[in-house]
Amino acid sequence: MSAALTGCATPPPQNKSDICEIFRENRSWYKASASASDKWGMPIAVPISFMYQESGFRHNARPPMRYFLGFIPYGRASSAYGYSQAKTPTWDDYVKDTGRLFASRSNFADAVDFIGWYIDKTHQVNKVPKDDAYRLYLNYHEGWGGYRRGSHQQKAWLLRTARQVDDRASIYKQQLQGCEKELQRGWLRRLLFG
Q: Which segment of the chain is annotated as a signal peptide (predicted)?
């Protein structure tokens, strides 16, 4: 059964550095991202840059296994899973808050909606603008309380990573401006008019 389900999973995009190519390859991803953007009020480029960083667009991404004595597996560093790398307790809060009982961390549309929800909550809790990918990512990584306490300040690697996420969101935003009209066209219009 697991092999059958894996065969149906969407593979990561060929060109992860170009949001237009990502969405051309996976048209349903654009539709889901636009829907989440409309629902939660954040730019499409922000959650996509989070996914690039967190999972590399792998539906079943999870932290590496930890080993005792170098060969006895004893679990993973966290419960993070899927496109968004949402941890189980935070995902459970999302499901409870939104009523999306059948949402799945390995489903792209659900994962992008989760990130939108988290961005919206971050805006409410810590007053971070919904287009500030740098500070939004720090909240995403450290949690709202951790961000307020400044836990990220002593993590140079995390500050660099958040800057990379912010830079990628800016690049994605520019790229999307050049292809969004094309992505908004339905399949019949694309077929008839290119």
A: none
